[in-house]
Amino acid sequence: MLLRKEDIIYTPFYCEENVYNLARTIAEKNPAEINSIYxxxxxxxxxxxxxxxxxxxxxxxxxxxIWDYHVFLVYKTTSGSYVYxxxxxxxxxxLFEAHYEATFAPEVELPERFHRxxxxxxxxxxxxHFASDRSHMFVTAYTEGHRPIxxxxxxxxxxxxVAATHQHVSPDDPSRYKQPPPPYPTSTCKSTQAxxxxxxxxxxxxxxxxxxxxx
Length: 215
Fold this sequence. Notes:
The chain is of the alpha+beta class. It has one domain (5-210): Roll (C8orf32 fold). The protein has four helices and eleven strands. The protein has a six-stranded antiparallel beta sheet. It starts with 14 loop residues before the first helix and ends with a strand. One of its GO terms (cellular component) is nucleus. Its EC number is 3.5.1.122.
């Protein structure tokens, strides 16, 4: 499946919409492939998940960015699976195994508050049900703190790591996006009273999930 990152609408800090646009492009241009496409969400109850090799922290790739959530796409083939991640410094796409090893650093021992939970959604379902009114982007979305320090034992103290958070506030002033929103209206992504993104942490916790907390 040949897709260039430059051909997909991309907006920094809106990974869920970037992946939606990617999945929609695949459905339109390669409809036979859509059943081989999956959308992966990761978060946890604290909304603190460390992710390495992020463009946001490109100058310090040895350290993670702490996201409240992250979203990427996986294309499954008979010869292997490929990850399409708009926010990584890794190639687009990257083999699943290589992306996993670099992005999630499984050799690093993480405090429990940084354990990650993953939910895998068929792209067909994602395209059918995704909704976001972007109200989670009305407040500060990026705060830079101290960098984490790796010990000789391989453990990492991430208490003051780079933090990239999306916190919800009352939507009284919808023009106050901390990060510029995508160039299309929210209706493109089926904006409704239901906001999948705002309730995602609870959604991840309360449904069947792939528990990768040991990573």
